[in-house]
Amino acid sequence: MMIRGVISLSVKFWSFAAIVALAAYLIGSVSFAVIVSRVGAQDDVRRHGSGNAGMTNILRNYGKKMAAFTALGDFGKGIVAVAVGRMIFTLAGITVLDGGYIAGFFVVLGHLFPLYFGFKGGKGVLTSLGVVLMLNWVVFALLVVLLLPVVFIVKIVSLTVIIGYILFPFFTLLINYIEGQPLLFNFAFALLMSCLGAFMHRENIKRLLAGTEYRFGQKKEG
């Protein structure tokens, strides 16, 4: 009977985990950068600049107003996905583990490889921030307090973002330990999300190692 109960719980967990993953991925696939550029400029931002469907590329090509709408959408969908993931787990009666962490990883995955827009998206920084805020506001606050001085000291946004990805899983582990939350499960998904984000910044990492990464305030050649 005990074995049957464990199997039943496992099947239930993985079934609803799959539902959360799919829902979050579809939410993440709503690319606000592409939508904003198509509606506001009858264009596709991915044809310009870095080719990324993200707020920075929108700002460079279309200005602050369209960038603000993009930022709000990208940040907001991270919040919405985590809320949906938690709601699904709660309705399913799964309270031991946090469905928000599954949702957090898959909403970022959807942003990077959007189903509705040819699997070509952005780098997921703002969506990740929305996810982190919803998962644990203490972790979010720690990252903001530590990283804001860093970005103004080094003047390299990508380096600051990469440091954030490195710190996020370990801050998650620390705060979850203090709060008595599940450690391995939450840490694993936080680590997966950070690895995904770092992978999307691989070209930035190459430029950082070569000493050629852009510093804000620096004049670009040409």
Automatic annotation (TrEMBL):
InterPro entries: G3P_acylTferase_PlsY (IPR003811)
Annotated compartments: Cell membrane
Keywords: Acyltransferase, Cell membrane, Lipid biosynthesis, Lipid metabolism, Membrane, Phospholipid biosynthesis, Phospholipid metabolism, Transferase, Transmembrane, Transmembrane helix
Enzyme nomenclature, EC number: 2.3.1.275
Major enzyme class: transferase
Database matches in SMART domains: G3P_acyltransf
Taxonomic superkingdom: Bacteria
A GO CC annotation given for this chain: plasma membrane
Family: Belongs to the PlsY family.
Name used for this protein in its record: Glycerol-3-phosphate acyltransferase
Naturally occurring in which organism (per UniProt): Anaerotruncus colihominis DSM 17241
Gene name for this UniProt entry: plsY
